[in-house]
Amino acid sequence: MMPDERRLIERAGQGDQAAFTMLVRQYQNRIFGFIMRMTANREAALDLTQDTLLAAWQNIRQFRQEASFSTWLCQIAVNKTRNYLKKADRETPLADGFDQATASGDPESILTEKRRQADLLAAMGDLPPAQRAVFDLRFFEHLKFDEIACIQQTSVSAAKTSFAEALKKLKRRLEEK
Amino acid sequence: MNCRQIQQWLESELTSAGIEPGEDIRQHLDACPECRFQYEGLLALHGRLAPLGVLTLTSIEADQIMAKLSAGMAASPRGQAGESIALTWLRSLVRPTLAAAALLVIALAGSSQLPVAPVVSREFQDLQLTQSPGFDLLSFLTGGDEDGLPTLVDQSSAAYITASVNPAQAAGILDSLSQQEIEYLVEHVSLEL
Lengths: 177, 193
What we know:
The structure holds two protein chains of two kinds. Chain A is mostly helical. Chain A has nine helices and no strands. Chain A has one domain (3-97, 105-176): RNA polymerase sigma factor, region 2, helix turn helix motif (Rna Polymerase Sigma Factor, Chain: A, Orthogonal Bundle), CATH 1.10.1740. In chain A, α3 (28-39) crosses α4 and α8 packs across α9. Chain B has two domains: 3-52, no CATH class; 85-188, no CATH class. Chain B is 56% helix and 0% strand. Chain B has helices at residues 3-13, 23-31, 33-49, 59-75, 85-109, 137-142, 155-164, 167-170, 179-188. The chains are: A mainly alpha, B mainly alpha. The interface between A and B is large, with 63 and 52 residues.
């Protein structure tokens, strides 16, 4: 953890809102990306990102700085997302989360890109949520398996197995296309 | 390097398309068509999934989130004098949970039926436990919570606990535990806050 980040965390723990804002601004895209891939729903991802950051603020004093701040944020995001998926039986993503932010070019290529992204999100959505989270945290967020195991409250070997299974399923799913 | 080691590397280490295999791995890949096929397949998967790795907020969305966060922070200020709502909530709930877990451990320890060796978190000792009558123990243990905090124990442990005790009655049990029993709980019972 960078010294500056540690100082920001300490200040945020003392109620410094500006410090907390500086702290989370660098992570908001990462948290949004994770939630977006988990839910495939842009509106939901926006809401859940905001909820995650607010929950982090409300609980910042419980953060012990034993894990990295980003891992702690991921843990909150995982739980927020899991609750969201559980509540409304939305385990199969809606795949309506096209990333307008990166859209460019002519309408036809935008449409092609939109379909490609929807296909990929649908492929991710075929994975069970817990497996999807393990895969995402490793593949996209590059967390270590012990960090993932901590977040998912499982063993390191179970996280590795889950990741390997997700890899196989995704490869198979995408090869079918 | 053998095929099994390559397989492990492929499945657990190769999480970035930019990763270059080391010399020993490269030598194996050159000599082993099967491992090379898998390696190339995984690289292709990276390529296919790359668009999902760059999902970002628009600047407008980022600003909106920050504005709402600021409003949320103003509505729930944190400071040295204040205490987090989540911590207050946990303080009110953790005692019956611990009591339930204690009952489970005590009941099962003698007969060696404890299915797993659960864990207690370091925060346990920091909490000043207070009693809270009546709550949904199973949901509390397994369902996470609205603040996005972790669940406390896994499903199987929670099922044992809730099947073994009445949480309303369990709240007083903790008082009767000896220091040794408390230490056993701290060492063995799952309670990750």
